């Protein structure tokens, strides 16, 4: 059968495919042939049986001859001649295979193999979207024509084999990877469908025939109905042998729409020449369309991500200096890319460097540069990276990304300035500042004050190994180092501070005293301290003063001991005449009272009373002088001492109906006898100055204080402090007298109103100071007073 209908087909003139074919013929023929050879074996082409006896090289030789002829005709835009020649050779059985051995599956697979080879090499030739899509379309047109011509020849051969026609057709139908059907366009019914029809379409031929023309509305996607109707109208204009393809969606029985592609051709015409029946192949392309949709969505996500990150992409064709920008890059550059002069916008100071980078990319294949760019919005700092693309082994284009790092650059500059400021500030500090790394045992940073303190430069300190760093510290202070490294009691929280005094060896060998304060700078995931930030203050002069003060204190203690001894002797000598005055006064009262006048009795009683008060005052003075000399500190429960004081005042407490409320007090290092007296004096004071008719109530409470809470009191330094408060409901006092009440022999009330010598609270204050603490008082006239004792622990 001759291809008489060939001349009636539309011309196979292509726009872009001839150039692509010429490129393959000149540069990629061997790759093109070998790709087809590999794909042929991957899909197990039946025609391979015809060349199984040939070696690989012999098979490749056949492939080179065939593809060289095909590409040459394509390059000359004469592929119609090629198809006619091949079809004629097939009909004349002049090819390397038996013409009767060809089946429809071979045609489909061969087209698939050749199309796949074209598609595989397409990106090497063209990377631009629109031309690439047009080339794909022209390749489809080529093989649709090739397949149509092959099917027409195959049909003729089948007609020559009438005896085997039925079986042969059924085999073709069963092997076609799609639904093959004959459709009557007049009755809208399928006249024939292959075995794959139901599997591919999701409906049987009978089910679709039952719907008739209503299938357009019943199963065709609403958006695709116009496409189907327009296709049926165009089909009426088709010539015999033309293949027309279109895509549409069909709703499956599960309710989901799937994509299909039908390739249809005229099968039969009526007496008037109108198309009555068509033959078609329908393929399920749902996966392909979903992949394409996913690619589009991924591209949209990429563009969105670029907008968020302020990154744009470009494609720069070197030979015509044309640019293609993504939307974000157009926004960054302030230009869409047409007729764009990139170098005109680069900052003059960066221009030569950027040009050099681009020139180097033509050799190295990569481009990476940061530069300033003058955009319509103002100056920007940009970072560009790109790769070179070759065509025919020559530089063709550069593609890449550009990131707007203006804000990042400003932030980095601000950070650098801040870092420089901090470095200058640290170097100007009169304290030695440092960062110590515990795992390595080395300093990570020291300021320049180290030179003025120890005589070392910062560089010398940073170069010291762990053992040398330890050697800087006095052996007596080495115990501080492991405590600093692992003490959870000192560094419970990141803001916790550790303070200690230590000696470091100067470069000249002398020892130098420093006061160090350290806080946690970094911890690992388990919470272990890794780095410590510290500041060390020069206290060498203070230490010398402390040594002098210690010597003076020792001398003062010796003097106090001598004074105490003197006070004891003096009090003893003073008591002796007082005892005689008191004794003889008592004898006068007992023996001569009746002989004395009323004035004499009054004077005598005053003499006796004054001598007794004088003796009590001497005893109190002796007690005060003995307080600072008693160093018998013990760790005792303060509650037991308070209970002793309450027991000593039991009679007076019962007499005035007083109530003492005391919480469970902690233990402390105190002189028991003195604290017992302190408690007794404070309770006695509250009982003495009770309001008339109101039973006294004394509340005793305690709490712990942090060092910063008592910093204003200038107490001895300690990790924490104990506060004891005694609150009563007595007569109170004006706060302007709060300091006076602790002075010796000072009274706020007359002796006739309240008994005592005005020395009890002075003893309390002396005891508090002897324990390194302090005591204060607040009064509220008519409501009571609060006495607050604070002791270092």
From TrEMBL:
Ranges where the PAC domain occurs: 244-297, 498-551
Reaction catalysed by this enzyme: ATP + protein L-histidine = ADP + protein N-phospho-L-histidine
Assigned EC number: 2.7.13.3
Top-level lineage group: Bacteria
Gene3D superfamilies: 1.10.287.130, Histidine kinase-like ATPase, C-terminal domain, PAS domain
Residue span(s) of domain Histidine kinase: 569-793
Protein name: histidine kinase
Organism the protein comes from: Flaviaesturariibacter flavus
Taxonomy of the source species: Bacteria, Pseudomonadati, Bacteroidota, Chitinophagia, Chitinophagales
